[in-house]
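Subject: Protein entry, chain in single-letter code together with its fold tokens

Category: Structural biology, sequence-to-fold work with a learned token vocabulary.

Notation: Tokens come from a learned vocabulary of local backbone shapes, not from coordinates.

Start of record: The labelled sequence and token lines come straight after this line.
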Amino acid sequence: MPRLPTPLTLSDHPRGREAEPTGARAPGAAAPPPRGRATRRRARGEAATAWAFVSPSVLVILGLSVVPVAWSLLLSFQADDLVTPSRWVGLGNYRALVQDPHFSQAVRNTLLYTALYVPLSIGLGLLLALVLNRRIRLVGLYRTLIFVPFVISATAQGVLFSFILDPEFGAANSALHQLGISAQGFLTDPGQALLVLVAISLWSGTGFCVVVTLAALQDVSPSLVEAARLDGAGRWHLLRHVTLPALTPVLVFLVLWQTINALQVFDLVYVTTKGGPLGSTTVIVYFIWEQAFKNFTAGYGAAAAYALALALLVLAVVPRVTRAVRSGAGADDRPEGAAR
């Protein structure tokens, strides 16, 4: 077999090539530019090309995110009905929020909805995930059926349950009548409406918790489970001392995710109850929409929106600060000679 030719490589370093004779340059020819200047020129050209590709996305982000956020922040300090010229009122909108009983009711409804929905959805999700993590027949079908409601939009859910829970012609009251139970108001009863909305949200939102928790359960080390069983641990001890500690990061994520979703609930309320009856289901986001686009007090609605944004910001920052403080305290507790 003939030998392949040895590849020839040329080095750009001055030592790897012969020095150019001084008199070899043609008379009157310009000296080549320094290497540093050429490199900077090439870098500027590459940066300009990159910005040419990125600029459409940057303009979209600025136009649809940054500019509206800045405009709504200015709007929250003004009295504006979106028709006549606005009037600067400073912190007047925020002072009015503190004294508004309708806003206080919306805050209470939102907190109650969140306090019921978040732990119930995570608890049911964990329970169903533990059941579906076993080897049972048709387990794939069961997982699919539990996750399907999560894919359905909140608007479609509201329309569906409005028909089912109709006080006169709904299937729910028809079933209760067959059982000898009197008809219920459901979405038209101030004492039941918010609880019914929580139940509808659980029907759809629990599937997400099931899928996330089930994925985390399948990632638990089998060696830890087997070692605990060899030590005589029962199911409760396995759940408490092995499974739940392994699921802690996932459960923390679910708590934050479900809380943020609960504080921003709107579609379901808008389609089913419109904030009624008697304001029993008016949540913060529906209150913001009502003030801005129904009562035409856009500045007041923007102030309520920024109050909600501040609550969400605190909710997102507090866990990070707490984790940083704990990690710093743990580092300070180490002995002086310990490795860092």
